[in-house]
């Protein structure tokens, strides 16, 4: 396993990733976890650079991976803790069913955040008025947020925000 650099796990029933993977896959740079309905945490990967977690509803924690730079989180409503990721700079977050942005975004020092959310949540973000949702992400250098009614929705609704130099553009689509 020392030469393993990409792992994809799909349809797994494990609650925790095997310790052998954590300790012996010392060159692991990319980890893709999809449809692991019982998975609780992703922790202690010293060489991991990119993580994708999709449809893992019980995932609660991503932590202690010092080289992790990029995370993709798709429909993981249980994820509450994202910490001890000193190199994290980019997050893509997708959940059309979520009522709010995840709280862990408030504590991350991100250069780039892409959000794919419901129209209702996009409208809350667009208020940019010190609202609870805006407070979670206003520190991000570059934000791109897209609002959809469903995955098939083709109407362009977006927010593009740059912190420095300041720029804010919101387009809620022609039907709003």
UniProtKB/TrEMBL annotation:
<dbReference type="InterPro" id="IPR032675">
    <property type="entry name" value="LRR_dom_sf"/>
</dbReference>
<protein>
    <submittedName>
        <fullName>Os03g0689866 protein</fullName>
    </submittedName>
</protein>
């Amino acid at each position: 396993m020392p030469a393993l650099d990409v792992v994809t796990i799909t349809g797994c029933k494990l609650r925790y990733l095997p310790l052998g993977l954590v300790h012996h896959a010392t060159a692991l740079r990319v980890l893709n976890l999809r449809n692991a309905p019982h998975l609780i945490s992703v922790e202690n990967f010293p060489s991991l650079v990119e993580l994708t977690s999709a449809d893992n509803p019980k995932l609660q924690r991503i932590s202690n991976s010092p080289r992790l730079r990029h995370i993709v989180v798709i429909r993981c409503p249980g994820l509450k803790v994202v910490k001890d990721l000193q190199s994290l700079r980019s997050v893509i977050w997708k959940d059309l069913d979520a009522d709010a942005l995840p709280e862990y975004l408030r504590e991350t020092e991100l250069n780039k955040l892409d959000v794919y959310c419901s129209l209702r949540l996009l409208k809350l973000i667009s208020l940019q008025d010190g609202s609870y949702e805006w407070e979670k992400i206003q520190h991000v250098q570059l934000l791109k947020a897209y609002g959809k009614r469903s995955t098939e929705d083709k109407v362009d609704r977006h927010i593009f925000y740059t912190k420095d130099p300041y720029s804010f553009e919101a387009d809620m689509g022609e039907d709003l």
